[in-house]
Amino acid sequence: MCDCAPQTSDVDEHVLPNSADVVPPGVPVAVPMAVEDGSPGAQGTSGTNADAPGPQPLRPCRPDFRDGCYQITIRPTLGSFQSTVGTLRVDREAPSAGADGVIISGDLYREPTPVAQPVADTPAIPGAAGESVAAAASRADGPSPFLRRRIPIFPRDQYRSYLKGTRLVVPGSTAPGQPCQVTLDVDEFGYTQPSAGSFQGSFPTTPSRSLRFVLKQVPGTVPTPFSSGPRFEGRVLEGGIDRGSVTLSWVSSFLRRAVLEIDTLKGAVAPAPVPNAAGTGTEFFDTVYATARWQLTIDRVEGQTEVPVPTGVDPGACWSPADLHALMSSVRKPGTDLDAEWRTHLVVVPATMGCSRGVMYDQIGVPREGSASFSDDGYPSSNSPNFGTAANQQQRNVPRAYLRSATHEVTHAFNQIHQETETAPDNSIMTTTPSVADVLGGPTTGAPGVFPDQINLGFNTTVRNHLAHMPDPVVRPGGWPFGGWFPAGAPQASDRNLFYPSELEFEVSAETERAPLGAPVTVSWKLTNTSGADLVVPDDLRMEALYTTMSSRDESGEERPVRPFVITCEGAKLAPLEPGGSLEADYRVFWSSDGFPLERPGRHTVTVTVAWSAGGVPVGVTGSCEIWVDRPTSDAENRDAALAMHPDVGKWVVLGGGAYHLEEAVARLRTLDGGGSRSTDADAGERSRVADTFSELELMPDGRTA
């Protein structure tokens, strides 16, 4: 849409995003490396042969190993091994790579039958039987090959491994008789697919094997300069042993692609393009993602406007999680296939001031399908004293800040977390809005009034590299649950600095020490400043605000994350807590996208951790409590535990009830209730402790329907 180059001249340093590049825990991610020149005599090479009779003339060798996305195909020498296809990303534009560096990463999938979106190893132009590519391309009535190639998408369940580039040699010249070839070394990390009912698989902590690709540039298969790019063929070596052939075909200057569908409720106003800082063009979702080298397409065909207001919903109030989840489930593109496209969904509703500007849902059908933005929410001065002219204005009236906020929610859907936790607050998309305002106009910057005009519509280096180079399952919609790559249990001393109890006291407790199998249990926590000075801490300790994580460990030692289903975090920030001051929060532990954390009888240790960054230093507090889950003591408890422990009932509980569009949950809970009402009459059937718990928490459905 525009000139997307960052405007950095004459800009104060605090206005720029954080330049730190933090490697995420829990998943392999490629890092910058130098590009080596393999020319004879170049630094790091052995030069010419000393026994040669004289200087040997060199011949030019500049293979076009350009930036962008390549489709990769590996065919093993042994026919018993399955071929793999995927994408390889070559990224010399990464800010952390420097002028002479590069980041290379890739993802491999088992080759489907037929190959998904074949673009590398078959002619791109169809012809008659036996017709050459040249003849097919020359036919006057043939289709134009322009824009034929694009970044391929492969099925999630065929994912095999992640590739991490470790060395790249691109020669500028070669000695006579020597081949002109590119050498690329990669570490391969094999992937274990998730178990049934789960979405998160695993990678090993060390490489499964190390490979070398020895590549020679060959003519491409698409005979036009407009859509073709370089193509390489070569061999795959492991420890010097030939393992098969490899083909790389350049398909795009972007590294990844995705689709954004925007649906707007009647009475709401969707985010719109805004002028860029240079005044030479506009910025919108697609240009923001272009800074991370994503090709984000806005689906203007499927995107709806004037979506009818659901019956019984006040669109100008804060929406209940259940009502918003129902709306998002009903208006997204029917038949969306996340194995064929990376599609995420943004729904825009009016709401009102103080509703957190937007939310992201960890799961509609699968993880991270959609988010929402609230056009009539805005920038209450209670969130920050540094909102400037945007203070107490609705989002629809502050276009630049509104686009930033909506992009923040969309980026949560691609599994990115707050920079207040990962690096430090800065002027970038994944810092919350109040923190951005404080960074721009806070007391330490001496620059009041720059919000919203100097909002940076881009990612910092850490998030940019995560988006570009994290493994596919981690970022693609329908892949890992939100935050699945970030630790949820007690932090290790090497990972995070913990406060002493004499500085910050952190108490964790459960509402009951014993619970029947299949019943929700509320866990609470309290943070108190026990020091003699103000300490900067998160001002919102709810799980939904993302500073707090939780896990549950059973007697076998298996630890399961407990992740929030609804992410409502845009109002949270770091703020001083006075001596003696305290903050509290709680969460109903029952189900998350990782399953049921209390699904086995016996002792469970629930650990709660609050983590943040203090001036770039990772800090936090952690505590735990124990819950004993009883075995069913009657046929009624056994029956009701089976009724309650279903994913749709889990969604009902984490949405706070009222999610009547979840028909399976409604049917099960009405059976659990002994009929169609909350009756406690004897003729309603024997009730169990499970049913009593749901009734006490007001989680039983009434007579309404979806």
Q: Give the helix proportion (percent range).
A: 10-25%
- How large is the count of helical segments? 12
Describe the largest sheet: 9 strands, mixed
**Can you tell me the residue ranges where pLDDT is under 50 for at least 5 consecutive residues?**
1-11, 44-50, 114-147, 675-684
Instruction: Compute the separation of the termini in Å.
Output: 41 Å
Oligomer: single chain
Annotated CATH topology of the largest domain: Collagenase (Catalytic Domain)
Give the percentage of residues in beta strands.
Answer: 25-35%
CATH superfamily of the largest domain: Collagenase (Catalytic Domain)
The number of distinct β-strands equals: 30
Q: Report the average pLDDT across residues.
A: 86
| Large-scale geometry | globular
Structural class: alpha+beta
Rg over CA atoms, rounded to whole Å, is 28 Å
User: CATH class of the largest domain, please?
Assistant: Alpha Beta
Integer tally of domains: 4
Description:
- The structure is a single chain.
- The N terminus is likely disordered.
- The chain is of the alpha+beta class.
- It folds into four domains: 229 residues, Collagenase (Catalytic Domain); 188 residues, no CATH class; 134 residues, Immunoglobulin-like; 62 residues, no CATH class.
- It starts with 32 loop residues before the first strand and ends in a 10-residue tail after the last helix.
- Strands 1, 3, 4, 5, 6, 8, 9, 10 and 11 form a nine-stranded mixed beta sheet that branches. Strands 15-12-16-18-17-26 form a six-stranded mixed beta sheet.
- The radius of gyration is 28 Å and the shape is globular.
- 14% of the residues lie in helices and 28% in strands.
